[in-house]
Amino acid sequence: MSYTLTRGAILDAYNNKTEGKPTVQVLDVKQLPGANVRYRLVISDGEYYQQAMLATQNNHLVDAGKLKQFCVIQLTDHICNEVKSQGGQTSRKIVIVLQLTPIDPGPGSTIGDPKNVETAPNSTPKPAAAPTAAPVPSYMSNKAPMKSGGNFQPIASLNPYQHRWTIKARVTAKGDIRTWSNARGEGRLFSIDLLDKQGGQIRATMFGEACDKFHNVFNEGQVYTISRGQLKLANKRFSALPNEYELTLNADAEVEFVGEDDTIDNQKFQFVGIDSLQQTNADEYVDVIGVVKAITPVSHIVSQRTQKELTKRVVTITDPSLLSVDITLWGKEAENLTEEMAPVDSVIAIQCCRVSDFGGKSLNTTFGSHYFVNPDRPEAHQLSQWYNDQGKNAAVESISKGRAGGGSGRDPRKTLLEFKDERLGYGEKPDYFVVKGTVTFYKHDLEKPPWYPACPTEGCNKKLTNQESGDANNWFCEKCDKSYPAPNNRYILSLLCCDATGSTWFTAFNEVAEQLLGKKAAELAEYKDMGNESAFESVFAEANFKSFMFKIRAKADNNQDEVRVRCHVIQATPIDYRKESQTLLDQIATYA
Description:
single chain, mainly beta, 8-stranded mixed β-sheet, 5-stranded mixed β-barrel, 11 helices, 30 strands, elongated
């Protein structure tokens, strides 16, 4: 078989003529060292060869074996960059392969007798370095180049060795201002995610003065030109974008508002089917889309590491694989995505979910996660059509263990007898489980009410002391070192839970207790202060004998040489009787 390469393509690229779509041969593919996967290529047109870098969005072609040594490809989008050495004394040109199309595995050997393009007589000579001039730091020399005809640097080709670039990109996500504090000091920052017309993505972060300057400049969904920024290796703990670099924009960065550009997509997704999650490694990041099968109310837990209260909500989605997965949303995403906004049977797409394999496969949102309900995308329309035609009444199997009946997505289902027989809570770490139970009694007394006077400062919640000084501000918080006119009463509610196998005392804190009783602690405190005992008692009477799926945290503690397991209610979800019936049928089937 004969192969026709585009003669002169390498020399044209070397001389910055990259408008065409030439056919070339790949002479070598080499993975570069480092934590982020990047590939260096050697490409040839049969006459000359040149080194090239593969944009990271094309790495999957190497993994799939479609891009390998001696294969023939078409360069559908490429540029040539001049890269300086770290000392700045020498430079060389490298082709950046932004997009390509594999054509043929190739003949298994080199086509023609190509020479190094740097030896070509018509190649542009390298500029001479000024030996007496000290190298200029990149953050001082990143001035925007002149833009002729709207030619902007593709995001995928940015690297720390470039000194002059301007990108044009859409803000696909904008974070809130966050504060940080460590041994070196404290400060504030916010980040944005950027997408250009070639599909390249990168995160840009602004600190301190730049944070104040640009936070109101950048708006999600709008298009901007940006120059004068620093590139560094991305911290994958905070960014899951497919780019090994990230941007830091200082206050001297140049940002120009463009508004709209139809050539740049609004968002970029790389959806993974739920069935594929079972083969996905933990801590990898994925985009998912599915039909909402269940959504829990907001619940609150206390982080064991930071001791801060965290807000969460669990959404269960399904797709044509007839599998479902639980996605835990955290923080503002959990608060904003209400049951009314994403009702059961709606379609939801969520970007940048982290995979967990603790007790089955499940997903968690992260700082870079964003959700879209009923997005106007072909995948969403196809899902909706499938669900209406077939999926609505189909049996679905969960890959997130222990979620039957509306409980948690990752914790085992237990009876109260199994909880005791298995001695849950006696290990070094807490045990979590889900139990279907009925509340038969709430411990309450007007003299010892089930709440405490808490600090009204957001995020504190420490118990206040009544100084009884006669001053209007007679409630004092030792942590905040501040006095208040009145406390913010918060529940610590003890309740007796029963199932068919036994009973156990649980403790519910403020938000869960409010859900169980249907009243805030402040309202009950008002009944107490007014001496309205009948109204006070009626709240507990009406809340009794209701059943829930309880998610429990069990941990033993030692108090005066007495070891007791304390069970805290993390979440109380009303029972979904349709799902619970299916769970019972599945259990019955195991005896067949």
